[in-house]
Prior knowledge:
elongated; Nuclear Transport Factor 2, Chain: A
Amino acid sequence: MSRAKLALFALSVLVLVVVVGWMSTMTNPSHLAPTADRSGESTCPMGTLPAEVRDTVRRIHAGGPFPFPRSDGAVFANREGHLPKQRGGYYHEYTVITPRSRDRSLRRMVTGGTPLTDPTQYFYTGNHYDSFCLVIGAERH
């Protein structure tokens, strides 16, 4: 094989690797998919979540105002058992606004611990409690 053909072949392989890698991020973007920490619990860095999650966390830290005051801050019972087992009243839920939605939609932030304005844990669900990820970086600094 000539040098020119070998160089063309190597370049073709490189382009193929780049394209396949790019396509895999488009079908399963790691910046949107939760990852698992050492305990197996799904985690999601704050910066990978929708901007409305950051707005909700700011409201939690400020103690409000909340867009749905009758629901936001209510005790979350964890009936499905998707979150770690805790005593009653440990978890509280908050609406994460979904743009263009006229109701609370599916996105929620569930916090764990006290005080309510600085909880020890933050969990995000984009599918109305079917699954959660532990939010990394939501705590106050």
